[in-house]
Write a structure and sequence with these properties.
The complex is a heterodimer of chains A (571) and B (269). Chain A is α/β, with parallel strands linked by helices and 571 residues long. Chain A is 49% helix and 9% strand. The two termini of chain A are 45 Å apart. Chain B is mainly α and 269 residues long. Chain B has 2 domains: 33-225, no CATH class; 229-242 and 254-269, no CATH class. Classes of the chains: A alpha/beta (571), B mainly alpha (269).
Chain lengths: 571, 269
């Protein structure tokens, strides 16, 4: 018995170490791991150069596209450089401040101060990393800021804000500190910026971002495509240059980059299991659709890291990993129903759109030569507002990638979208037949026509009256059941009762752990061995003690599961 | 001596008689806390705003006037009420003067109204100054209460425009509302935007109610006015709780005694 327990513990330890290799989130990698494990293409170098340079930039891309990796790399390189004062600030916890908007009239003011003091805290951390002495004013503000940030993030805002720093004051401070520390410039690397779904909060963020620039100070913010609301005075492109973090899977350099990631991350023993199986790496890389996090996720599943026991990597496992990944990408889109409950019907129609696009593409591709196949859908412009919103959501989730629009002369102008390759493969959109080889799938994706697409109006894909289905889901009056007439309505028109607007964050905390991106068996094991049932339970699990009692969950997996829960309620 | 006008431009004025007795009736005593009275009056306005007969601009503007009026009334009720229930407020206000006529006009328990009858409560400056003058309480900047009252101040500017300029904003109104002075603007309401105004007023009332209740209790605790014994403390606590508690909101503890026990356990110990 003692022997088998020891053996199990050793197994957990081995697989936990392997799990760390597949850690997808750049924020959770150490500097050494980041440098050792992430590959860098010429394109990445060009983006890094812009991130480290002057001028405001917006780094755009869906989840897992490498935005945090690029920002963190820029940060570490600037730290090394010592000529520029960098600050890396992560705003992923923005949603934790959302309940405050339901209890405090000055929530917007407090939110602004949270944004500003996180920058001050970030600068202070950099100064410590550079092993320099922080100017007294910076120290004082950073100490105050840390307490304020913590109190806001745990839902205990101060009754009175003792110190408030305006964006223009912050700019003056940053310039002064840059000079005092002997640096030429100051670069603010703002990660997960403006990811809170409140339009008002996003606009606040960009108003501040817009002011944080001068000859010496520049800000770079990571944003999601499709769902970011800029303030009325912030003109994208003019106020900040847009950089795309998302790799293009059609680029010639894409597959070599992905192969390089594999070589950097995997141990020799794991690499040996992939020897002679390059088509699998390419298959998974293409299925990731240019998103390294997805690639690592699928690779991890393919090699059986999650299961904790050695597995035989084969075609079936690769296909299974891609199918699961397609489901998880869909899951991000479908989760919008929980995070933005009033757009529930839009998400439902979006799901129909995906299905319709898949069927049309499959039908188009049937019987066509490999070089003529299509993975792009083109929607005729002008696109109806409702459909535009759905497409923005799909783009945010990474399910589609927006391309340039094209003109077909008298036939009209069309906005093009590429469908996620994991879905293309999982649903056999390329119509490759029943048992195609992985090499054939890779070849089909690599040599498909860049100009072929299926096209139509929104009605072509969704039916004539689809817009009627895109109604905001506004719960009726809780007192008399009268329907709401407008999303801005605060009181029932019939009985005057106050219409409740629940805190999204608090609702997300109550979400069941079944919504975590884990295999069913792992979730079943957590439920069988613990009483962890909601996201909140996982997040509040002190020192991860409870979750570590589950068989085959060691410290690294426990930490990863908590990260998943935090990610679920963060963005 | 008057003379015949050189030129007529409109009809002549005439003798009119305004029978005030036909225009006034005895006041109605309301057995509700000021916040619940506020909610009750505001609800009437809210329900009217949803009716099609009230969809015209001038009707909605009238409702705006009514909404600000019931909000102002709340502030007056609370400050006057505090004079009856809080010895510290009585002490603070005892240095203020009241017109002799007010002493004859108001009942003794309503004399507080005499203190504030000439003051406007439609604006952040006025609310802060009257709260300081009558209750000796300073409303701090950079707080939830100040943000709530500052938002109410904007509603007051809309009301000002409605009362004095038939809805047109003056340059001062525009400046205070943060509107670019490039063109003249007027108040324009819909049932939904009227709801936003009601929400702003609700916010100010709720924030003020919570804030003042806590400040009074804080002061009583600080000055040792509470003995941690219900038999002694109920003379002060019960009327205070009754003044501030909202049955309509129904949060916290409804019964004064139970609320006192929780307060004692958490604060007085």
């Amino acid at each position: 018995m003692a022997q088998s327990k020891k053996h199990a513990a050793e197994e957990i330890s081995t697989w936990d170490v392997l799990a760390s290799v597949f850690e997808e989130r750049a924020e959770n990698l150490s500097r050494q791991e980041l440098e050792a494990w992430s590959a860098q293409s010429p394109r990445d170098s060009a983006i890094l150069s812009k991130l480290k340079g002057p001028g405001s930039k917006l780094l755009t891309g869906p989840r897992g596209s490498g935005k945090s990796t690029l920002l963190r790399k820029a940060y570490f390189e600037l730290l090394e450089d010592r000529e520029v004062l960098p600050a890396y600030v992560n705003y992923a916890r923005a949603l934790a401040l959302e309940p405050m908007f339901h209890t405090h009239a000055n929530a917007l003011q407090l939110f602004r101060q949270w944004i500003i003091f996180k920058v001050i805290d970030g600068i202070h951390s950099s100064v410590l990393e550079m092993q320099q002495s922080a100017p007294p004013e910076m120290l004082e503000l950073a100490n105050y800021g840390q307490l304020l940030i913590r109190s806001l993030e745990v839902g205990d805002p101060p009754a009175i804000l003792d110190k408030a720093v305006s964006p223009s004051e912050l700019l003056v401070l940053l310039e002064s500190w840059t000079e005092q520390l002997g640096c030429r410039r100051c670069v603010l690397l703002l990660d997960d910026a403006a990811h809170a779904f409140s339009q008002e909060q996003q606009q606040q963020f960009f108003e501040i971002f817009r002011e944080l620039r001068s000859r010496r100070v520049s800000g770079k913010a990571a944003v999601y495509p499709g769902t970011t609301s800029y303030s009325p005075f912030f003109h994208v492109g003019h106020e900040a240059e847009v950089l795309e973090a998302w790799y293009h899977p059609d680029d010639d350099s894409f597959l070599p980059i992905m192969r390089s990631i594999v070589e950097r991350r995997l141990t020799p023993s794991l690499l040996s299991r992939l020897e002679g199986r390059q088509e699998i790496i390419d298959y998974l890389a293409l299925a990731s659709f240019g998103l390294p996090r997805g690639f690592l996720n699928m690779l991890s599943q393919f090699l059986g890291v999650e299961e904790g026991t050695p597995v035989q990597p084969n075609r079936s496992r690769a296909v299974g990993a891609v199918a699961d990944h397609a489901e998880s990408v869909r899951g991000i889109f479908l989760a919008l129903s929980s995070k933005l409950p009033r757009f529930k019907h839009f998400v439902e129609v979006g799901k129909e759109l995906e299905g319709s696009v898949i069927r049309r593409l499959r039908s188009y591709n049937k019987g066509r030569d490999v070089k003529q196949k299509a993975v792009v859908v083109a929607i005729e412009e002008p696109i109806r507002t409702e459909l535009d919103r759905i497409l923005n959501f799909l783009e945010y989730a990474g399910l589609v990638r927006k391309m340039s629009s094209v003109s077909r002369g008298v036939k009209g102008r069309f906005q093009r979208y590429t469908l996620h390759y994991a879905i293309v493969l999982a649903e056999n959109v390329l119509s490759l037949g029943k048992s195609y080889t992985l090499a054939a799938a890779v070849e089909a994706l690599r040599s498909r026509s860049a100009h072929a697409f299926v096209r139509g109006r929104g009605e072509t894909f969704l039916g004539a009256k689809f817009a009627e289905r895109c109604k905001l889901d506004l719960p009726p009056c809780g007192s008399c059941g009268a329907p709401r007439v407008s999303p801005e309505q605060r009181y029932c028109m019939r009985c005057g009762a106050e219409l409740t607007n629940v805190s999204i964050y608090e609702e997300l905390l109550k979400a069941p752990i079944d919504e975590l991106p884990l295999t069913k068996s792992r979730i079943a094991r957590i439920k069988a061995h613990t009483d962890l049932r909601t996201m909140q339970d996982v997040i509040l699990d002190d020192e991860l003690q409870t979750i570590r009692t589950v068989p085959y969950i060691g410290p690294i997996w426990a930490s990863r599961i908590r990260n998943y829960a935090q990610e679920f309620v963060s963005v | 001596m008057s003379r015949t006008p050189w030129l007529e431009v409109n009809k002549s004025e005439e003798a009119v008689r305004l029978d005030i007795s036909q225009l006034c009736s005895p006041g109605v005593f309301v057995e509700l806390s000021p916040i619940d009275e506020y909610y009750s009056n505001s609800l009437l306005l809210l329900l009217r705003s949803g009716e099609s007969s009230f969809s015209e601009q001038w009707m909605l503007r009238l409702l705006l006037l009514g909404q600000v009026s019931v909000t102002e009334t709340y502030f007056r009720r609370i400050l006057s009420g505090l004079l009856n229930v809080c010895p510290v407020v009585r002490r603070t206000a005892s240095a203020e003067t009241v017109a002799l006529g007010a002493v004859f006009y108001y009942k003794s328990e309503d004399l507080g109204y005499g203190l504030i009858e000439n003051a406007s409560m439609s604006g952040v400056k006025e609310i802060k100054s009257q709260t300081q003058k009558v209750a000796g309480v300073a409303i701090p900047n950079n707080s939830s209460i100040s943000a709530a009252i500052e938002a109410f101040d904007k509603v007051c500017h809309l009301r000002h425009a409605t009362v004095h300029f038939h809805g047109e904003l003056s340059s001062r109104n525009a400046r205070e509302l943060g509107i670019e002075p490039s063109e003249s603007r007027a108040v324009w309401l819909t049932p939904i935007t009227f709801q936003a105004i009601v929400g702003t007023c609700h916010n100010a009332v709720r924030a003020y109610n919570r804030f003042m209740f806590e400040r009074v209790l804080e002061r009583w605790t600080g000055e040792g006015l509470l003995q941690s014994d219900w038999n002694e403390d109920r003379k002060l606590f019960r009327p205070l709780h009754k003044l501030f508690y909202s049955n309509r909101d129904g949060v916290g503890i409804r019964r004064p005694y139970s609320a006192y026990l929780q307060f004692r356990a958490r604060v007085l110990k």
